[in-house]
Amino acid sequence: MGDLSFAAVLSAFWLTIQLALFSAVGALVLGTIIAVMRVSPVRVLQMLGTWYVNTFRNTPLTLLMVFGILGATYTLGINLAPSSINDNNFRWAVVMLSVYHAAFVCEALRSGVNTVPAGQAEAARAMGLTFGQTMSQVILPQAFRGAIAPLGSTLIALIKNTTVAAVIGNQEAAGLMSETVENQGSSIGIFLIFALGFVILTLPLGLLFTSMSRRLVVKR
Amino acid sequence: MTLRRFGAAAAVAVVALGLAACGDSGGGSGSGGGNFKIGIKFDQPGLGLKEGSDYKGLDVDVAKYIAKELGHKEGDIQWVQSPSAQRETLIETGQVNMVVATYSITDARKEKVSFAGPYFIAGQDLLVRADDNSITGPDSLTGKKLCSVKGSTSAQKVKDKYPGVQLQEFGTYSECVAALVSKGVDALTTDNTILAGYAAQPQYKGKLKVVGKTFSEERYGVGIKKGDKALCEKINTAIKKMVDDGSWQKAVDANLGPAGFKVDSAVNPPKQDACS
Fold first, then answer.
1. Which of A174, B9, B156, B234 has the fewest CB atoms in 10 Å of its CB?
2. pTM across the whole model
3. pLDDT digits 0-9 by tens, A109-134
4. In this protein, which residues make up the domain named ABC transmembrane type-1 (chain A) (predicted)?
């Protein structure tokens, strides 16, 4: 222990990337389902979707993380990896990051759905398409393309929010940073190294999503 | 018109007074109008704890004694909250004159600050449930689940020395204590002084016990600006005097005694290092 090695920084950021990737997939899938529920014609599903968004969007992520370990694992006994504490921490972090950001993905997608003119849904229904068909063939493909920019913002927020996973013991970037500060004291240098790491991760993504949103937007 | 102008002036005065009152309380960090600033922990029972406008604990008593020996009246002291990660910065930028905050003397830290003391020698220990007799020390931990704070020296030491132990890490010790009580983990590790404080908390009284077999030496020192040899020597003299006249023992008993904490008398009271 002691010095901050390049290898340690790399492995910490690798864990950050893994957390972000798995959670992004989880959040996208879950968020899409919630968004479909919110725009569906079934009142109960709409209410369930609204409840989900309002609950998880307004719960602090730290609280969700700590609940995953203290509440779910240790009190309720829902252990996602009984043989390894580290794997359990990682999986709960992915679950909670997915659950939390699904609420934001849902709202981003719903804004995308709103870019699709209502006439298209009506036309699809007039042609005899079911709700599922209307969604998957007509609305959602256009909604995703219209929601690229807010989805990109959500992804960038997710990458930065992976640092919260350190509170349940994941050795990602923020975890390594707190360890380094404990050993060497805080300094601008250490802060800059980790800030730079996140800039490297997020800045290209931001540019990519901006250009994609311009290229993929449905011209009307 | 005059009346309205008077009203406006009064309003301004009231606002200014309000601001002055706010400035006086220092926004939560520091109190007292003094000019001798001492960094302590505000949240560590038995060591440095803020209770209302009062400060209690071993660190506080040691700091007060040193300040007195340095010629500062108690009213001159301004307490500044110094969380672990900020201690070096507070000293380097001159925001505090000295730090007495469970500050272990280490070589890495000596590159940034100088230390006087040590004034107390603690050690890494284990906190377990009171009815658990299977854990007697670090060697009986294999296969057990241990808890500590993310990034802390204690957590790193366990990872390096006892790789067979599974380590759960949290952001604060309180979460570890909660996990320990709910049987999620089997033991919590950090300095014995800190563990004793948690074992003595009313809601956990009788449920937890400190194993009492230390496996590291944490030498609590007084952090000061790097290279200030004169101040270091004065502080060392003050600590030595505190030990000699019995105030040190009194402070230890008063602050750590209620937690049922047994001071390791083989190393305590410690001999101060030479200043450099």
1. B9
2. 0.78
3. 999 999 999 999 999 999 999 999 99
4. 13-209
Mean pLDDT of B200-209: 82
Which chain B residue shows the shortest CA-CA distance from A168?
A: B170
Nearest-CA distance B7 → chain A (Å):
43
With an 8 Å Cβ cutoff, are B88 and A69 in contact?
no
Out of A2, A62, A178, name the one closest to residue B150 (CB).
A178
* CATH pick for B124-210 out of 3.40.190.10, 3.90.550.10, 3.90.180.10, 3.30.450.40: 3.40.190.10
- Was domain A6-215 assigned CATH 1.10.3720.10? yes
**CATH number for the domain formed by residue range(s) B3-121+218-259:** 3.40.190.10
Q: Do domains B3-121+218-259 and B124-210 have the same CATH topology?
A: yes
- Across the interface, do B153 and A182 touch by the CB < 8 Å criterion? yes
Give B35's contacts (C-beta < 8 A, 6+ positions apart). Answer: B76, B78
B106, B145, B157 ranked by CB distance to A85: nearest: B145
The angle formed by the CA atoms of residues B122, B50 and B104, to the nearest 5 degrees, is 25
For A104, the token pair is 């934001």
Q: Which of B90, B102, B170, B175 should we substitute to test contact with A (largest number of A Cβ atoms within 10 Å)?
A: B170
